[in-house]
Amino acid sequence: MDNFTFYAPTYFDFGKGAESHVAELIRRFGGSRVLLHYGGGSIKKSGLYDRITRCLEQESIPYVTLGGVQPNPRSGLVYEGIQLCREEKVNFILAAGGGSTIDSAKAIAAGTPYNGDFMDFYQGKGTIEKALPIGTVLTIAAAGSEGSPNTVITDEKTLVKKGTKSDLLRPRFSILNPELTCTLSPYQTAAGATDIMIHVCERYFSNTEEVEITDRLCEAVLKTIIYETPRVMEDPGNYEARANIMWAGMLAHNNICGVGRVQDWASHHIEHELSALYDVTHGAGLAVIAPRWMRYVLHTNPHKLVDFAVRVWDIPLNETDPGATALQGIEKFEAFLRQIGMPSTFEEIGARREDIGLMTDKLFGNRETEGNYVKLRRDDVVKIYESAVSG
Fold first, then answer.
1. What contacts 201, CB < 8 A, 6 or more positions away?
2. In this structure, how many other beta carbons lie within 10 angstroms of the beta carbon of residue 44?
3. Is pTM, for the whole model, over 0.90?
4. In the predicted model, is pLDDT for residue 244 greater than 90?
């Protein structure tokens, strides 16, 4: 196990009706003038918007609002949010929604006190030294941004999707009420579950030795998603299953499963080019890319793929041919994704073979390799994309 530091100060308020505590928590963490940031109309249709604003008004907390966050959040709305926060002297951001809304809120939080262009942080040109505090009310279990230091934004000028991170961007509090996820469509639920699984896999597929504790944590989260996702697909109102998925989503990405080990992240970065160019739902794009990445690296480095098959998918170890065991695990994973309704090819997500060169160029920029479990070069990524063109 490698040396590491780990700092995760987020206060979690988990359970039924937890959103009623939002004003109290804002006060507790120093908020006195709030930006309420959200996505489309879903929080208004569900009544969540009214419940939140009523809580703020009852506690006489002034607020301004900014809606319109899209999946794969865009830079344009972030600039608008930064200007609004400065003009209104906002000192706390409340993100009500899923990972896209929270990521957008984090970008606004970092950009408001910064003298330059907030995109500097996403382009490796600046370091986050100050940020407004944020809180979240989570409405979809997927991205894990409610407990992580990470944020991803698509630059509308270039259609490049990049991330940055800082412990200053970890939410001061996150409200997690599983009831708020019960109205999600089957597709959203499945895409969220896929995102959670690949967040874990990016940490699990590591060459670092002697990391048994984080291996077992990763495996526990993966097996929880495998067990609970079909249950909510069959019964969308299953609160207990929703609760387990929601907490698994947070654990998958606050990095408790990733400390002390070199992580990979190739599947995420390869997929980011799909979602930036085609506006694909992130989890759906990962369902296409991650199994293809697994198949591609199998013959170069089968070690953790064997563990993945045996420990996660309960495949008996073939001691004379461990690679065959690993392949069975990948096939089991692919079958699970099909079972929950996820796509597996470019055709299903509207991606085109002719854009593979463009996506690969955008992914690499001036870099020579991608990922860590197996170092991928441009030709490798092209082959992974090409393998996904058709079944």
1. 218, 222, 264, 267, 290, 308
2. 12
3. yes
4. yes
